[in-house]
Structure formats: structure tokens, C-alpha cells
Write a structure and sequence with these properties.
The protein is α+β, with helices and mostly antiparallel strands. It is about 30% helix and about 20% strand. It folds into 2 domains: about 130 residues, Glutaredoxin (3-Layer(aba) Sandwich); about 45 residues, Antioxidant, Horf6, Chain A, domain2 (Antioxidant, Horf6, Chain A, domain 2). The termini are far apart. The structure holds benzoic acid.
Length: about 210
């Protein structure tokens, strides 16, 4: 069965551009993003890896370790990294797993045989410090992902892990949040000293509690 939200992210040891990685140990107490791309030396993947490298300071700020993956071998990754630097204007500054034996791709269900039986699709997993899967998305090979959206989800996950709120449609860090229905108005008065606005009994907005 496919990996589902709340499942423990499978642990593994695999080669990468930064040496062998034992995944759970590598993550330590950090959050993690593990994402696959179909193939080295392909155009969309080249732009994605450049974009993630440029966003590295944003991931660092949020205590998130990013790991990429394809089933290409390590020498290909190392050679392609030079192209990424040349064309995207940034060094590959996070590890890229060389999953030639598909150990990780199979454990995470990153190969979808009816789409392509040899290459990984564009999977993204966000993993919490408890090593549980918090988000899983899959994009087709022809569509480059929006990694700003991944950061937005991480902001929401990190906020909602600490406060009894959820985040509304298209929410961005700094905007009003929604008080979860399990919290009574009485409790909300104590938990949210900045106050809250009741639109419906089940729809109550409060300023972002950690700002
Ligand atoms: C790409 O990264 O450009 C790509 C990879 C596999 C299939 C289609 C596009």
C-alpha cells in the first residue's frame, strides 16, 4: 500500500552527492523534505534543482533538511551538478541521492509503473521531527513543481503543530488563521489573547498566534 500521511517515513541508507546518507540519523531533530525527479540532464529537473538550491536559506531558517533523488548513478549526478551551476547560477547545495538500485524509490512508491516503469515521478514528502509523513504530493514529469508552495505548507505545519489553529485557503505566513472547531469559545478567549472574529460558530479567525 502507498505511503500515507501519518505513516513513519521509511529509513534507508543510500549514496548521495554528499556521501552515504542514513536518512533518520541525517534528519536528527529536523524536519525533512525528500523529493524525487525523473532524470538527470533533463530540462525541467534542471530548473527545479536550481530553484531548490536558491531556496536553501529558507529551508534552513525553518530547520528543514532537503534531499533530492533520482535513479541515476552518482557520476551522472556529479556531472549534472556542473550544468545546474552553469545554467541556474547556483551550486547544488543539498544532497542528491543516487538511487540506482531503487531502494528508496520503491520504499516511498516514487515509481508509478503506469506512468513510467523505470523513472521516478515528481514526488514530494514532508517529514516531521517525529519521522512521520506530513505531506505527500505527486506531480507528472512534464510539470515543474512550485517549491514556494512546499515552504508555505511547512509554515502551516510548523504553526499548527504548536497552536490549536488551522490555516485557510491560500494562507501565507503572517495572515489570520482559523481556530480549530474542537476549541470552545471559552478556551479560545484564553488561548488567543489577540481575540478572534466569529463568522460562523465553526469559522473563527484569529491573528497568527506566533507573530
Ligand atoms: C524534464 O525534467 O524536463 C523531464 C523529465 C522527464 C520527462 C519529461 C521532462
Amino acid at each position: 500500500m502507498a505511503l500515507q500521511l501519518g505513516d513513519t517515513a521509511p529509513d534507508f541508507t543510500q549514496d548521495s552527492t554528499e556521501g552515504p546518507i542514513s536518512f533518520h540519523k541525517f534528519l536528527g531533530d529536523s524536519w525533512g523534505v525528500l523529493f524525487s525527479h525523473p532524470k538527470d540532464f533533463t530540462p525541467v529537473c534542471t530548473t527545479e534543482l536550481g530553484a531548490v538550491a536558491k531556496l536553501k536559506p529558507e529551508f534552513d531558517k525553518r530547520n528543514v533538511k532537503v534531499v533530492g533523488l533520482s535513479v541515476d548513478p552518482l557520476p551522472d549526478h556529479k556531472s549534472w551538478a556542473k550544468d545546474i551551476e552553469e545554467t541556474q547560477g547556483t551550486k547544488l547545495n543539498f544532497p542528491l541521492l543516487a538511487d540506482a538500485d531503487r531502494r528508496v524509490s520503491n520504499a516511498y512508491g516514487m515509481i508509478h509503473p503506469n506512468a513510467n516503469d523505470t523513472l521516478t515521478v515528481r514526488s514530494v514528502f514532508i517529514i516531521g521531527p517525529d519521522k512521520k509523513v506530513k505531506l505527500s504530493i505527486t506531480y507528472p514529469a512534464s510539470t515543474g513543481r512550485n517549491f514556494d508552495e512546499i515552504l508555505r505548507v511547512i509554515d502551516s505545519l510548523q504553526l499548527t503543530a504548536k497552536h490549536k489553529v488551522a490555516t485557510p485557503v491560500n494562507w501565507k505566513d503572517g495572515e489570520d488563521t482559523i481556530i480549530v472547531p474542537a476549541v470552545s469559545d471559552e478556551e479560545a478567549k484564553k488561548l488567543f489573547p489577540k481575540g478572534f472574529k466569529t463568522v460562523k460558530p465553526y469559522l473563527r479567525y484569529t491573528p497568527q498566534p506566533n507573530k
